[in-house]
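SUBJECT: A protein chain and its fold
Encoding: whole-number codes for local backbone shapes
Chain under study, with its fold:
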Amino acid sequence: MSLRALLVLVLLPLSGCVPRIEVAAPKEPITINMNVKIEHEIHIKVDKDVEALLKNQSGLF
């Protein structure tokens, strides 16, 4: 048996073991639930002079 025939006999069965990779879109649509509750607290520090001014003249804002 020649080297070429032996090589074909060895490699022929291995040719069927090629991995297959498939990328496909899902059949159902992707749902993203965005129920998000955002709360903020804002703390403002002011000078005592400004705070007194705001208390004395409440009609500014």
User: Anything to note?
Assistant: The CA atoms of residues 5 and 11 lie 10 Å apart.
